[in-house]
Amino acid sequence: MPVFTRFHRSSRPVDGMSGADSPPERDVRADASEEAESAGAGTRLSRLRTWRTRLPRAARVLHLTTTALAAVLVLGALLLPNTLPALKAVSFARIPAEAVIGAVVVLALPPRPRLAAAVLYGLGLTALTTVNLLDMGFNEYLGRGFNAALDWDLLPDAQAYVEDTLGGGVATAAAVGAVLLVLLVAAVMVAAAVRLASVLARHRARATKGTLIAGTTWVTCSALGLTLFGGPVASERGAGALRVHAQRTVESLRDEAAFVQQAKADTFGNTPPGQLLTDLRGKDVIFTFVESYGRSAIEDPAMAPGVDRTLDTGTKALEKAGFAARSGWLTSATYGGSSWLGHSTTMSGLWIDNQRRYRTVTAGDHLTLTKAFQKTGAWDTVGVMPGVQKGWPEEKWYGLDKLYDAFDLGYRGPKFSWSTMPDQYALEAFQRQVHGRKRDKPLMSFVILTSSHQPWAPLPKMVGWDELGDGSVFEAIQKAGNKASDVITDTARSREEYGRSIQYSLTSLTQWLQRYGTDDTVLVFLGDHQPIARVSGNRASRDVPVSIVAKDPKVLDKVAGWNWTEGLKPGRDAPVWKMDAFRDRFLKAFGSTPHPSTG
């Protein structure tokens, strides 16, 4: 018997080993295992061949189906667009150059290198599919493509947003699902590439002719510039997409190095304290950002009517209280999210449109507009940020003597999705704990309102200012509101609820000013960015409204040369500045003398 024979031979001393030194029992088991595996594999192969022999037609159909499916997957990955609007059937009516080149390479290689090339090709398709899907998401929400050098830092923030909005379970499931999806895509794409490589090699003669015809057709269509359904027949979409991402990464790394030097230069970096903001001395100045308050809220037909009525009502109410306002437009450094980029761009006078720039500038000592108030020594400076729920080291960079975060405002009511508390409550707490208190110096305040943060469900409603208490009054309102999961997936409802959220935030702010503003109050409020593209539109601008409100006519006289529109609603033809221009214009308008620093 084979096993006995092997045992008998292995029990003899070999190469000077004694019988006691040899391990015959282990050899028996190993050999038996190998033989069993070989027998099992042979049995399975035999069964497969038997099945193919017994059912040749079914076997052929299965073979053709899996081959066709593999071809569809490969061609689909090579032609997949990177935006949702472009995701149409006609986008796949193309001849991809990468498929022709892949076929040429496979046909030229021997078996083992061919297998390795197919695996690498499948992994390349995985990378291409992943970046295209990321581009879709980023274009849908942030109005731009994914940047491999900069945007990985945003993924934890995205998970935190999902957790705050839809719950920790959904956030965890989404993160795990994303990882599994990438692994699944990798497995499927590699399998598809290996399958096609095997088929091409098995039918080399016909595959060579087909590849030659496809290549000749591609070259001809490319040379003649032939198009079909609005796009070129000869496509290099896959290689082009990877090339764009590679170039974007390289440019981002170069930009980071250049920005480090740019951030060191400052028009007002060496201005003495006594020459800063001399025309605002004695005023209580409040800088307020309204979350996602963009131009679309004022001009988009789906949202503008309600928001415009709110602005008109607010303008009239403030005029009755003795206030006047001027309004214009700023082009934000961000879109759809990453509000902190808009805040820091406005306050620093630097264009901060990505996380790397943000980290660079906040780690330095570039003069922010808020810090300029602190530097004079003539103001107490505070920040009111109900959206901050953990340590915030940027407090020092902004020049804030004191920060009031989500846990410092005494709120005991429910969260409204991502927003920790309604804007009306945050403003009342600001009045009670900060603005309304007697002090030796005037106050400069940096206030961030959050009720208009996506997903705009559930939304708070205005209540009597004397009824706010600790915020418990909002319990019933929150329970009766829409569910975030019902609104976030519905574009029409998202647009409607977004408009309502802006009306709420603006009403809270203007009523607060009407109620608590004094002769020395100066309010500057603006949006941080437009809402996501699904709400504002794929071709929406990046403009946000900005307004200055004051009772003292001398304050608005200082900005008369800006040609801003009277009232809280900026006109369509009102001046549009880049957001990073605001700091220097504001400082100069209110008596600051430039003394540049070069770093």
CATH architecture of the largest domain: 3-Layer(aba) Sandwich
Tell me the Rg in angstroms: 33 Å
What is the count of distinct domains?
3
CATH topology of the largest domain: Alkaline Phosphatase, subunit A
Characterize the biggest β-sheet. Answer: 9 strands, mixed
Number of strands: 13
Q: Beta-strand percentage?
A: 5-15%
Q: What is the H level of CATH, i.e. the homologous superfamily of the largest domain?
A: Alkaline Phosphatase, subunit A
Helix share, percent:
40-55%
Indicate the overall shape. elongated
Uncertain residue ranges: 1-41
Please give the alpha-carbon distance between the first and last residues.
88 Å
CATH class of the largest domain: Alpha Beta
Total helix count? Answer: 22
Structural classification: alpha/beta
Q: What oligomeric arrangement do these chains adopt?
A: single chain
Average pLDDT = 86
Task: Describe the 3D structure.
There is one protein chain. The chain is α/β, with parallel strands linked by helices. The protein folds into three domains: 1-12 and 32-54, no CATH class; 58-251, no CATH class; 285-589, Alkaline Phosphatase, subunit A, CATH 3.40.720.10. 54% of the residues lie in helices and 10% in strands. Strands 5, 6, 7, 8, 9, 10, 11, 12 and 13 form a nine-stranded mixed beta sheet that branches. The protein has a two-stranded parallel sheet with strand order 1-4. Helix 3 packs across helix 7, helix 6 crosses helix 7 (168-202) and helix 11 (304-320) runs parallel beside helix 19. The longest helix has 35 residues, at 168-202. The protein is elongated, with a radius of gyration of 33 Å. The termini are far apart. Mean pLDDT is 86; it is low at 1-41.
